[in-house]
Amino acid sequence: MPMFRDRKDAGERLAAQLLHLKDKSPVVLALPRGGVAIGAEIARLLGAPLDIVLVRKIGVPWQPELALGAVADGGTPEIFIDERMAESLVIPGDYVREETARQLAELERRRQIYCAGRPPVDIGGRTAIVVDDGIATGATMRVALRAVRRRGPAALVLAAPVAAAVRVRPAGARSPGARNPRRLPAPAPSGRR
């Protein structure tokens, strides 16, 4: 049996774990594409605005799904490169620079399409809930959290229904009220909730 029926189910179940934030002026910031469906459910159930955080993975040349790093959109782009991975895999610096530039250009292209000139939701002094549909290496979420932190939220919360055993403490350690992640309850048998 799958852990979640679909992204709607995952969003509803995450929202149930985040209800304590409803009176903290939350803003849901989702990573396209998969995080948006989950974030929409969280935003709906918390009565919060929904916006996006544009992030692009910088993949290893021969394995693009393996994140060497990531870049996030913003006034000043946020860039993270796992230097230890780059060194151990002997990835040339020229590749890293060129791929970073290519992904930044793709972020700009997507920002124009997705946002169509609409400014980002102001999160200053609010509780920012950053949502994705899953975390593998943690590179894209790390850069997303750094980019969101620069926008001045009162609190920063990471929400994802599934994650590999990655270390997220460096991103959350400075967050007041940071808590250990909780396991979501198992889904009800098919057809019942």
Provide the descriptors you would attach to this structure in a database record.
three-stranded antiparallel sheet; globular; 193 residues
Strand order of the largest sheet: 2-1-6-7
**Which series of helices and strands comes N to C?**
HEHEEEEHHEHEH
Q: How does the helix and strand content classify structurally?
A: alpha/beta
- Uncertain stretches: 170-193
How far the N terminus sits from the C terminus, by CA atoms, comes to 14 Å
Radius of gyration: 17 Å
Q: Work out the helix count.
A: 6
The percent range for helix content is: 25-40%
Q: Give the amount of beta strand, in percent.
A: 15-25%
Oligomer: single chain
- Main sheet? 4 strands, parallel
Quantity of strands, as a count: 7
Shape: globular
Give the averaged pLDDT, no decimals. 84
Task: Describe the structure in your own words.
The protein is α/β, with parallel strands linked by helices and 193 residues long. The protein has helices spanning 7-18, 34-46, 83-88, 93-115, 139-149, 169-172, and strands spanning 26-30, 50-52, 55-60, 63-72, 78-81, 127-131, 155-159. A 4-stranded parallel sheet has the order 2-1-6-7, with helices on both faces. Strands 3-4-5 form a 3-stranded antiparallel sheet, sandwiched between helices. Helix 1 packs across helix 2.
